[in-house]
Design goal:
Strand content: 15-25%
CATH superfamily of the domain at 153-271: Response regulator
Distance between the termini: 62 Å
Number of strands: 13
Order of helices and strands: EHHHEHEEEEHEHEHEHEEHEE
Largest sheet: 7 strands, parallel
Radius of gyration: 24 Å
CATH class of the domain at 153-271: Alpha Beta
Number of helices: 9
Structural class: alpha/beta
Length: 317
């Protein structure tokens, strides 16, 4: 089982001299195609590496074929999820094809797939209609032909603010460095919600994209805690504070968000299980393939607050 070859409708159509629609109808056993043309298409498809099954009745299908689109492996919040998914697929004895952002242009034209997993941020409105079960990991949308799996960044960020308030912090800054618009907004709105629920005002100058903005704030007014949108950013903030003689957490508390890059950094963060996200994506698809007709949905993965050595209690200051 495991990894498989990429076969496209248009390649078979070009080789056989028929339309893409005819190729699709021939391979999917639909009416309107002569036996001569059907046999010709099937023969060419097999030559190109497509495993033709006499009946695509998926309820009787033993091997499920996944297309995994890993759009942004540089996103620390989402990287490695495709590797975990591949391990699950291999353990099941199914097949997969690992694709990238450039392959989205062919979405819907890959005939030998039973389901799709798309990991990362993209314009889902420009995506063709999904003809097979499809899960998007990383952000939510409103498409009715897609399932979405997202980390619950809104409530996760609000919980971090709540924990900082519990430790006595009232001046809480927000280091915003995320490129993913959907995740960025969820975290930012969670930050604002956390402030509001604790009666804290929103200060525009407490929201910054780099430490230069932080140093521009008068020392007496600077935040006593800085919430970063990633653990790598939190590490950079801690290093710069240290270079300026500012101790963490004695002088300033710092938190990250999502998983840590360096497990030895002991950064306080909201952690989300990539294994849970990966397992849910495979389960959703396999359930739909065997007949789950429930409406497409958005599934929010809850985070776990992990308090480490980068936040301090200032109640007695």
């Amino acid at each position: 089982m495991g990894k498989r070859k990429n076969v496209k409708l248009e390649d078979i159509a070009n080789a056989t001299g028929v339309s893409i629609v005819t190729v699709s109808n021939a391979l999917y056993g639909k009416k309107g195609v002569s036996e001569n043309v059907r046999n010709k298409v099937i023969k060419e498809a097999e030559r190109q590496g497509y495993k033709v099954r006499g009946n695509r009745g998926l309820e009787n299908q033993k091997i499920i074929r996944f297309d995994i689109y890993d759009l942004d492996s540089s996103n620390i919040n989402l990287n490695d999820i495709s590797k975990i998914i591949v391990k699950i697929i291999n353990a099941r004895g199914d097949e997969y094809r690992l694709l990238g952002a450039k392959d989205l242009k062919d979405f819907g034209h890959n005939i030998d797939t039973d389901c799709n997993i798309i990991i990362g941020d993209f314009d889902d409105e420009s995506l063709p209609k999904a003809e097979v079960p499809t899960v998007v990991i990383g952000f939510g949308g409103i498409r009715t032909d897609l399932d979405y799996i997202i980390p619950d960044c809104f409530h996760g960020m609000a919980q971090i603010i709540q924990q900082l308030v519990y430790h006595g912090h009232r001046r809480i800054g927000y280091m915003n460095t995320i490129d993913n618009y959907n995740v960025k907004m969820d975290e930012y709105m969670g930050y604002l919600s956390g402030l509001m629920s604790n009666g804290l005002p929103e200060r525009e100058y407490y929201i910054f994209n780099n430490m230069e903005d932080y140093w521009k704030i008068d020392a007496a007014e600077r935040p006593t805690a800085i919430v970063c949108t990633g653990c790598s950013e939190a590490t950079s903030v801690i290093n710069e504070l240290s270079q300026k003689g500012i101790k963490v957490p004695e002088d300033v508390s710092v938190t990250g968000f999502f998983d840590q890059v360096d497990q030895d950094a002991n950064i306080t963060t909201m952690s989300y299980s990539k294994s849970e996200i990966a397992a849910l994506s495979v389960k959703l698809l396999t359930d739909r393939i065997i007949g789950n007709r429930a409406p497409m949905n958005t599934y929010a993965i809850q985070g776990i607050f992990r308090e480490n050595s980068t936040i301090g209690n200032i109640l007695n200051r």
